[in-house]
């Protein structure tokens, strides 16, 4: 293959992927607009028309703005590659630093920082315009700037050693470097899972032990039934940044902890909170975290092997606007263009995630009343202004959770299959 041929393939793939994303967004907008006038039958008794229309308008605003982001990302990728942006930055870094390892790391960091800086206006608009317009943003400019600074410092403290380690392995480990890099990447991810609850998350949010003794007793009884041990039950000050609510368990091994957003506790009753927690425990009991780690490892191994083949060819670099091949530039180019060529994998990954959500719902229905879980979901859909009528094809590509109607229908079927739980 020649560099010119690969350039044409890249441009064609980028154009098709961008057009596909825009087409899916247009379908999504049309589907939501067509169903805006009436609440779906399954939710008519529990969700007011005004709330349904707010969700439709909120989703519409986010989707329309996302279309601009899609176009911007495509243009930015072309500027970095075919227009010579990466080569220009690499030349600057090569002139400033002497050691090849430092040159490569500096180029990657510079490109990432520049990309982040150029994306900042989009982030600001989403947070302080769209989220604020619909009553969700609680973040101040000071908090936003503090979060940004913390993220940069944390990225430097954790990401730079990883980057230098990966570049060294790629240069020193011979033809099987991709295997060593994959193992190092997975070890890094496991380390992050282990330290996130106690060292990283508290940098951004305040976590306080759950003080409601009655609720705490109910949760501890549920944990005992499920055979789950946690290092604590915590409430996170999610309302500091957003009105959205959620709950999750995090950590690995002895650092596992259960976290509730304060907004969630204010909205749901005891039975519903217990059901939501049972769903989260379902992910643990059905080994979803372990399964996703295995899938991530397999994909990472495959992609890194492919990078190992591509970086040995001149047309890979030249076809993407780079005239001075290096290990660092190969790594940077590959992961910048990977989303373009892997877009069709997205529905498969989304379907796999939705399968896990159904399984977690089924587990929750076995430990609590499925009706409580359904009621909790309806409140969460309402409070988060999540659309009840997504376009099916759009949802199939992007949604990690099943559409509302399918999920509620599934829970209702589980409720009727377990009548003994109705007396709880």
Provide the low-confidence segments as ranges.
419-424
Give the end-to-end Cα distance, rounded to a whole number of Å: 67 Å
Overall mean pLDDT stands at 90
Helical segment count: 16
Strand content: under 5%
Based on Cα principal axes, name the global outline: globular
Q: Please write the string of helix (H) and strand (E) elements.
A: HHHHHHEHEEEHHHHHHHHH
Structural class: mainly alpha
Task: Let me know the largest β-sheet.
Answer: 4 strands, mixed
CATH topology name of the domain at 205-288 and 349-423, in short, is: Zincin-like
CATH architecture level-2 label of the domain at 205-288 and 349-423 = 2-Layer Sandwich
**What strand order characterises the main sheet?**
1-2-4-3
Superfamily at the CATH H level of the domain at 205-288 and 349-423? Metalloproteases ("zincins"), catalytic domain
**Structural Rg:** 24 Å
| Helix content, binned percent | over 70%
* Assembly context of the chains: single chain
Features:
single chain, 424 residues, mainly alpha, Zincin-like, four-stranded mixed β-sheet, 71% helix, globular, disordered C terminus
Q: What is the structure about, briefly put?
A:
The protein is mainly α. It has helices at residues 3-34, 49-80, 85-96, 100-133, 141-172, 177-200, 213-226, 262-267, 270-285, 288-310, 314-318, 327-341, 346-367, 370-383, 392-398, 404-417; strands at residues 207-209, 233-236, 247-250, 257-261. The protein has a domain at 205-288 and 349-423: 2-Layer Sandwich (Zincin-like).
């Amino acid at each position: 293959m020649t560099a010119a041929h690969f350039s044409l393939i890249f441009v064609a793939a980028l154009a098709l992927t961008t057009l596909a994303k825009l087409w899916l967004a247009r379908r999504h907008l049309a589907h939501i607009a067509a169903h805006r006038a009436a609440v779906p039958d399954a939710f008519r008794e529990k969700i007011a028309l005004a709330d349904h229309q707010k969700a439709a308008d909120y989703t519409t605003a986010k989707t329309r703005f996302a279309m601009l982001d899609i176009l911007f990302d495509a243009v930015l990728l072309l500027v970095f590659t075919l227009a010579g942006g990466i080569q220009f930055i690499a030349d600057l870094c090569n002139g400033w630093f002497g050691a090849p390892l430092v040159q490569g790391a500096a180029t990657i960091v510079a490109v990432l920082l520049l990309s982040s800086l150029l994306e900042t206006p989009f982030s600001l608009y989403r947070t302080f315009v769209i989220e604020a317009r619909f009553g969700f943003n609680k973040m101040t400019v000071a908090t936003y700037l503090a979060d940004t600074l913390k993220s940069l410092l944390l990225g430097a403290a954790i990401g730079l050693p990883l980057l230098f380690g990966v570049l060294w392995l790629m240069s020193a480990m011979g033809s099987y470097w991709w295997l060593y890099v994959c193992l190092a990447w997975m070890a890094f991810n496991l380390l992050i899972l282990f330290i996130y609850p106690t060292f990283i998350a508290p940098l951004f949010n305040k976590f306080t032990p759950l003080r409601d003794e009655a609720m705490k007793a109910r949760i501890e009884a549920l944990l005992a039934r499920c055979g789950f041990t946690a290092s604590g039950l915590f409430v996170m000050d999610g309302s500091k940044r957003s009105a959205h609510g959620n709950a999750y368990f995090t950590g690995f091994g002895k650092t596992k902890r259960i976290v509730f957003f304060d907004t969630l506790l204010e909205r749901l009753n005891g039975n519903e909170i217990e059901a939501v927690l049972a769903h989260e425990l379902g992910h643990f009991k059905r080994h979803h975290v372990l399964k996703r780690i295995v899938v991530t490892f397999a994909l990472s191994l495959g992609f890194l092997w492919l990078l190992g083949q591509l970086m040995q060819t001149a047309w890979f670099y030249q076809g993407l606007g780079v005239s001075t091949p290096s290990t660092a530039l190969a790594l940077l180019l590959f992961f910048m263009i990977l989303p373009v060529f892997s877009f069709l994998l997205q529905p498969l990954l989304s379907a796999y995630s939705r399968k896990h959500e159904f399984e977690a719902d089924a587990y929750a229905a076995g430990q609590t009343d499925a009706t409580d879980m359904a009621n909790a979901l309806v409140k969460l859909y309402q409070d988060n202004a999540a659309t009840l009528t997504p376009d099916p094809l759009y949802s199939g590509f992007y949604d990690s959770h099943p559409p509302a109607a399918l999920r509620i229908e599934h829970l209702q079927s589980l409720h009727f299959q377990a009548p003994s739980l109705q007396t709880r």
